[in-house]
Amino acid sequence: MAVYLLYEAASGYSLFLAHGLDQIGQNTEAVRSSITDLNRFGKVVQLAAFHPFEQALDALNQCNSVSEGIMTDELRNFLELNLPKVKEGKKPKFSLGVYEPKLGSHIFEVTKIPCQSNEFVHELLRGVRLHFDRFIKDLKPGDLEKAQLGLSHSYSRSKVKFNVNRVDNMVIQAIFLLDTLDKDVNSFSMRVREWYSWHFPELVKIVNDNYLYAKLAKTIRDKSKLCEDQLEELTDIVGDEEKAKEIIEAAKASMGQDLSDVDLLNVQQFAQKVMNLSEYRKKLYDYLVTKMNDIAPNLASLIGEVVGARLISHAGSLTNLAKCPSSTLQILGAEKALFRALKTKGNTPKYGLIFHSSFIGRASAGNKGRMARYLANKCSIASRIDCFADTSTTAFGEKLREQVEERLDFYDKGVAPRKNIDVMKSAMESTQNKESEMETEEVSVEASEKKSKKKSKSAATENGDAVDEPATNGDGTEGKSEKKKKKKKNKRKDKEDEEREDAEEDQASKKKKKSKHGEADGAELASDVKKKKKKKSKSEDSD
Q1: Which strands make up the sheet holding 45-52, listed edge to edge?
Q2: Would you list the DSSP string of 528-540?
Q3: Which end of the chain has fewer CB atoms at under 10 Å, N or C?
Q4: How are beta strands 45-52 and 12-18 bridged, if at all?
Q5: 15 Ramachandran zone, left/alpha/beta (phi>0; psi -120 to 50)
Q6: Rounded to an integer, what distance in angstroms lies between the CA atom of residue 208 and that of residue 216?
Q7: How many C-beta atoms surround the C-beta of residue 506 within 10 A?
Q8: DSSP class of residue 23?
């Protein structure tokens, strides 16, 4: 039986015919030994046909289809032209060797060409790949490498299929920046406190918030100029009139030293920078919340946006987090403590980044480990739903959060929680109901749009006379009269047509009646003539 080999190169499809396989006995070791030697391998494998790709886009499409195990029309035509025809009812005397089993099964389903993919065929194709540039004579040195490089780049680009709204890299960068901003804002605000405390040391004890302290340092500037006229401004900043009065009184009896205008200006500028950083931190937090609701809505609704983003950033991506088992997710972020415990044979950590969740803080000291294990289990479920679900919804995350709350009640009060199957069924029902509501809303919106379009068209046709009136320049009455005359003419024409039709119908009915009367009269005359003849004959007989 002849064996053909299909090789998908970057430059095109090629078909090779393998000879002398019966002598080799399909021994893979013999093939491996003959692969490196072109003289020996060239006697066994010979080029039968070659079909080059016309463009790089065509090569990319063919490569994508082959990787997915699909035979394209171009490949089918190439095989049907260059392979012996398979007759119906007879066994083929050849087989096609293919590297991908999926592609071979699809070729057999469509064309009924027998395909095989085993170690022997793989070794033969490996030799073909090694000496491919020698088999194709028209290829110049370096052309095959260029084609392979360009196709590999375009293929890798096409395989990176992602939704722009669900890129988890933005979440990773945002949470890193948020953590660094927290550190920077804290250190800068401490610097503002130390710097301005030389001038107004009593303000530190009155105001504890860093942002408010920086804002007050900017507005007060020189404590000696602070008076009761600025009471309203200070109450707006602090939010408490008593605190504002306390600041004014403390400024009057302050023990701080005086600063020059240049020093106060620098303090004021630095306080403004700290305020800008803290405001940007708030905006960044809002951005992180929106991105987490787009990328991992269930995880965000279960454990929070910040903790979920930290888990994603520590795992590397949402897919990596979804691949992690719940035991790994539980201690994610406590790797040093884990390896230290393994090295010293001590107690392993119970939680890592998941400790920042409010559920573990609410649990009792004896139940923190169990709560961390249960929460990690639910987080792994939520991350897998977010990663592999087609539609984004928060129904599963909300139901998982309810389960965690029930587990807390079970540990504290002994209330039996619901089963996981029932909770998931309710989540599925809620998602289906939401989808049906969305579909009905879309249908209603489309119907309302159609109605509005019809109404607008009817209104435009009705108001067409009024729209055209300004163009008459004072002759609006003449335009209306002309249109009324046209309408009357049309009505007259319709009436005349109806009268004509009625007249034609009457004429036709009269003709039918006349024809019937004529036939009846003729029959009566014939009967009278016959009677007269009979009377005459009787009178003659009597005579």
Answers
A1: 45-52, 12-18, 2-8, 94-97, 115-116
A2: HHHHHHHHHHHHH
A3: C
A4: antiparallel
A5: beta
A6: 12
A7: 10
A8: H
Separation of alpha carbons 143 and 510, rounded Å:
96
* CB-neighbour burial class of residue 160 (10 A; exposed 0-12, middle 13-18, buried 19+): exposed
Question: Above 60 in pLDDT, residue 126?
Answer: yes
In this structure, the number of other CB atoms found within 10 A of the CB of residue 118 comes to 11
| 105 neighbors 132 (Cβ within 8 angstroms) | no
How far CA 23 is from CA of 19, 26, 85, 97, in Å, comes to 9, 8, 26, 18
**Residue 78 near residue 49 (C-beta atoms within 8 A):** yes
Q: What is the pLDDT of residues 279-298, one digit of tens each?
A: 999 999 999 999 999 999 99
Residue 141 DSSP symbol? T
Give the span between the Cα atoms of 267 and 269, in whole angstroms: 6
Beta-carbon contacts of residue 412 (< 8 Å; ≥ 6 apart): 364
What's the N-to-C CA distance of the chain in angstroms? 124
Distance, in Å, from the CA atom of 28 to the CA atom of 9, rounded to the nearest integer, reads: 23
C-alpha closest to that of 111 among 182, 6, 263: 6
DSSP, collapsed to helix, strand or coil, labels residue 313 as: helix
Q: What is the pLDDT of residues 236-281, one digit of tens each?
A: 999 889 999 999 999 998 898 888 999 999 999 999 999 999 999 9
